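Form 7-S
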Amino acid sequence: MPRPSQPPLFRQVADTIRERLRDGTYPVGIPLPGERALAEGFGVARVTVRSALARLQEEGLVTRLRGQGTLPIGQAMATRHPKLHNGLLDNIVSQGLRTRIQVLSCTRQACDTEIARLLQLPPAAPVLCIQRVRRSSGAPVMYSEVVLPECVGAAIVRPLLEEMPLLTLMEQAGYPFDHGEQELSATIAPAHVAAALRIPAGAPLLQVRRVVYDAQKRPIQYLLGYYAPERYQYRMHVSRSGSASKVWISEGSG
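Output:
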């Protein structure tokens, strides 16, 4: 009888690394061994390891950081939050892995009355405010202002703000998300948002307001985002048994 064909080497390597991520051999937040060390350990070429890591990155289990190697990120989140699998917040994290973030500012300041209400903080409580632009294929697709309670902001590793999704950084800092409330509406571009997105002031935009909560229903993040509608799509599959929300970045636009 003919012997069953073996899966490609890169897939075998990816399967083994995936299992090591699952059992904690490669802890979340600690870089994996380098490509050369992995290649020697598996007895394969570095190009095979590179293909395996690319596959795991597509699955949202690792991210590649400039000058820092490959970092495990996804397995702990999937294990600790199975109900978010294919959910909107889970998909937002995946979106963060496929796009690039530019941090415009990151400052500590006193929150206004509205932010204090949304984050359930005392009036004028200190918060961390982060202004960012998200890019896909080099084009700006989103401008956002994120506000974190001081305890959360102080735990964030700021040099990684442009390398990893913020929800993932919060997870690693000990503030895992559980659910969120989000509103979408149409608006026009304020001047500073238009400049960041390279569009005319007053152009139509999709505005997103989101509050993210932990398992104890404590708000741990507020986001105000502006999306260029020709570069962004929001799709939701609706059924009697539930829904899976998807965030899409249009390719080849502006």
